[in-house]
Design a protein that fits this description.
With 462 residues, the chain is mainly α. It has 17 helices and no strands.
């Protein structure tokens, strides 16, 4: 259902928008956690380590695709906020073409370079084969991940955060059932888990397309939306560049974040299967704990995009302030939950008899939870800037995070073993939080100045 986020109570709209996002994100993480539960419980620690060793690489690939589609959807949301329905359809067509080209290139590149990349990541020989086939199968299904992300991003840009949730729930349940079937009945091992993920994503794409066809006439693309005419070259080129100017920096930003996690994982891989398994389990649990904060960040992005497109800058500022306060409270609550019950949850996933693995996971959670406040604010200010079509500051923050995280992981690992690796991410959160917070306040002051004196956004930027 289409939702206009430019009218009504800002706080209420953000809350209502974020709840389906939160539930959907939790289900998405649950079907990621299904890999841990099923692989860890049925195939053992080494099998779990093979999934964990390449998980950051898969997330890097997925982040790049998601960053691009989310960036394109910002333009779609701005066109909708401005009341430009033809622009909405044209934006979806351009987004589909560009993201398809991007995905084809990325899939081929990753498939060809996969083995050298895994060697560079220090993946242990004992788990190399399972890790290789798991990631290759996931890359083979990148098209389905791309189209689901694109369709879900467009629906959210139009104010509908519920529909992607419903389809994600169905896909999550299907993924668990298929993973059990392929691993326990068909004895496909670790690759069976990857096949289950892809099939469930295909199903969610089909459901999205059927729903859009039936309920979203605004997204029924016409032949003219796909055609580029020579006489309109300048206009079409500018429209494409408008998407790329937001989509490329966001894809690069997500990629940089993925690379920084990849570097940490590469260092972590040198400490053996137990540390890899513990780090994998702890990170997956932590991803669920941070889902409420992430969901409010995504909500404020859609809110900012529509209101920025409508020229309601003061409303954008109000929504960001309220979301920042909510995330502050959530960061404290989630930190307490993870400190006191996080390792119990890890034990559920990998078995309470794996005491050494659980102890390592516990050490990580004690460190990272201290820094949740900074992570929570990153989600708010980074998404607000992206929603306003200002991707450069988030990109700069990502590069800063990459440098700090990489240096800390390598240097501290030498000094303090895997404890040093555990500090790398949290230290990077502090740096990135400072960059996006300062960048947001500078940009919002400029925009409010322009609104006060009736200056155009373009003239202000010039």
């Amino acid at each position: 259902m289409i939702k206009d986020l430019t009218k009504g109570s800002a706080l209420k709209l953000i809350l209502l928008f974020s709840i389906p996002l939160l539930i959907g994100n939790i289900f998405q993480q649950l079907y990621n956690l299904a890999d841990i539960v099923i692989v860890g419980r049925t195939l053992g620690v080494k099998a779990l380590a093979s999934v964990g060793a390449v998980a950051p690489l898969f997330f890097l690939i997925l982040f790049a695709v998601a960053g691009m589609t989310n960036g394109f959807a910002v333009i779609t949301g701005q066109k909708f906020g401005a009341g430009d329905i033809c622009g909405v359809r044209r934006s979806v067509a351009v987004s589909t073409i560009l993201s398809t080209i991007f995905t084809v290139f990325f899939s081929i590149l990753c498939a060809v370079l996969m083995k050298p990349i895994l060697f560079m990541m220090n993946v242990p020989q004992e788990i190399f084969n399972d890790a290789y086939w798991y990631i290759q199968i996931c890359v083979g299904g990148l098209f389905t991940a791309n189209f689901y992300n694109l369709l879900a991003s467009v629906l959210r840009a139009l104010g509908d955060s519920k529909t992607p949730l419903y389809f994600l729930i169905v896909a999550s349940v299907l993924n668990v059932l298929l993973a059990l079937l392929f691993i326990l009945e068909f004895h496909m091992g670790v690759p069976g888990s990857a096949v289950a993920v892809i099939i469930s994503q295909v199903f969610s794409v089909i459901l999205c397309l059927l729903y859009i066809k039936k309920r979203f006439p605004i997204l029924h693309l016409q032949k003219s939306d796909w055609i580029f005419k020579k006489e309109n070259f300048k206009k079409d080129f500018d429209f494409i560049m408008e998407h790329l100017n937001v989509g490329l920096p966001m894809a690069l930003q997500f990629s940089v974040l993925g690379i920084s996690v990849l570097i940490i994982q590469s260092v972590c891989n040198t400490f053996g299967a137990d540390v890899i398994a513990a780090f994998t389990a702890a990170l997956r649990i932590e991803q669920i704990a941070t889902m409420p904060m992430i969901s409010f960040g995504v909500a404020v992005s859609a809110f900012a995009a529509q209101n920025y497109g409508a020229g309601n800058i003061n409303r954008v500022r109000y929504g960001v302030v309220k979301t920042s306060m909510i995330n502050l409270v959530l960061s404290v609550l989630m930190a307490l939950v993870m400190r006191y019950w996080g390792t119990d949850i890890v034990g559920i996933f990998i078995g309470n008899d794996k005491t050494s693995v659980i102890k390592i996971a516990h050490d990580y959670l004690l460190i990272s939870t201290i820094f949740y406040f900074f992570l929570a604010q990153i989600f708010v200010f980074r998404n607000a800037l992206q929603g306003m079509g200002k991707p450069i500051i988030p990109l700069i923050s990502s590069f800063a995070e990459l440098m700090i995280r990489s240096f800390a992981a390598v240097y501290l690992a030498v000094k303090f073993s895997y404890f040093g690796v555990f500090y790398a991410g949290p230290i990077a959160w502090v740096t990135a939080s400072a960059v996006v917070s300062i960048g947001y306040f500078i940009n919002i002051k400029k925009l409010m100045f322009a609104e006060k004196f009736n200056l155009s956004k373009k003239s202000l930027e010039e």
